[in-house]
Description:
Blueprint: H1 14-31, H2 37-49, H3 55-80, H4 85-101
Helix pairs in contact: 1-2, 1-3, 1-4, 3-4
Amino acid sequence: MRHDRQDRDPQLDYAAEELVAESVAHLAVSFIGLDTSAAAVPYLASWAESAPADTFERIAGLVDRLARRLEQTLGADTADSGGDAESETATKRERASDSHAAC
Length: 103
């Protein structure tokens, strides 16, 4: 993740970095069909308690960009293995968004 930093990305404290990392990880595994909500939601909640109130607003764009980058990589792997990758990607993104919204 640190290698994908851009100038417009917010400066993050440790709690915000944990929130970004876990949010992206949760979305990525949701994208491939794994439900890690039982572990991810409490972990995110614990870090959210020690983060400033506006943290999710500040990190939303970064989480979205990183998660989309992983989805594209995973989608490319799906396309290489055959099947309707575009349709699968849309379905997985919708499922991941629904799961992440619960956080």
